[in-house]
């Protein structure tokens, strides 16, 4: 059996915050490693509480997330959004900022990942 992991990014901008879920394909595209490659070393050490350096290096960087949103998401829980596409390409982020994506209810926002205080 192949282990499957996900990485949850807590992101915030001037309008709101969200939890975005990244799976292997998107992690590999932007981070250069899959979730398994990032998280397996922690599992082997037996300490899943440490944050991998690769993820710590994302703090204060700007990313564009295109997410999948379901209207039926339960409002009683903190919603998580599946990341369909993620890029750190600054040019694409600037062009997409505050633009409409796929319909009238989706917007594209430039997100900066910051260290939690």
TrEMBL record:
Q: Which InterPro entries match?
A: NA-bd_OB-fold (IPR012340)
The protein's name in its UniProt record: Replication factor A C-terminal domain-containing protein
The lineage's top-level taxon is Eukaryota
